[in-house]
Amino acid sequence: MKLNKVERTALFIDGANLYATTKNIGLEIDYKRLLKFFERETRFIRALYYTAITDDQEYSSIRPLIDWLDYNGYTMITKPTKEFTDSAGRRKIKGNMDTELTVDAMTLAEHLDHIIIFSGDGDFRALVEALQNRGKRVSVVSTLTTSPPMIADDLRRQADQFVEIKDLATLIGHKDSSKNAQDEYDDEYEDA
């Protein structure tokens, strides 16, 4: 990954997308190592983590991760999931955070040089283009190693730099396979 110690850098993490990506490739993110890596290699400004949470449950399985990230240097952006019934009568849960991430990236852009988006969601292609039109460098972190790839082709092509998350595994992954806060995601996103 090409980083520059003088570039004001922020991370925009699509929590659900990053979770799906890392689960598919068998990588467990060590969020402390992730933060330290970017603090060391860039003029780090902020890491924003976006996730929807189920509000109606007494206990949310994602809550321990949210709390840990919030107390350990991440800016947490959450909103409650919405429940609906699809045309086939199936109960569905929706918790899309694309708009929040997009608005924040455009708002903070004037204070940044390099924006790193942890997501493969093709909906962010227009955001990447808008940020580039403002003179910002945009990197996207996801994977091509799954079938199908977890990154939309048009997003990968639009980004100034595509970073294969597997290439960062030794820098941001857990050193052991012990249970961690990310494991708490499983129950929350299996049905989403």
Can you put this structure into words, describing what you see?
- With 192 residues, the protein is an alpha/beta fold.
- Residues 177-192 have low confidence and may be disordered.
- The protein has a 6-stranded parallel beta sheet with strand order 3-2-1-6-7-8, sandwiched between helices. Strands 4-5 form a two-stranded antiparallel sheet.
- Helices cover 35% and strands 24% of the residues.
- The protein contains 8 helices and 8 strands; from the N terminus they run βααβαβββαβαβαβαα.
- The chain has one domain (8-190): 5'-nuclease (Rossmann fold), CATH 3.40.50.1010.
- Helix 5 links the parallel strand 6 and strand 7 (137-142).
- The longest helix is centred in the N-terminal third of the chain and has 11 residues, at 15-25.
- It has helices at residues 15-25, 31-41, 63-71, 98-108, 125-133, 153-158, 169-172, 185-190, and strands at 8-14, 43-53, 75-80, 82-85, 91-94, 114-118, 137-142, 161-164.
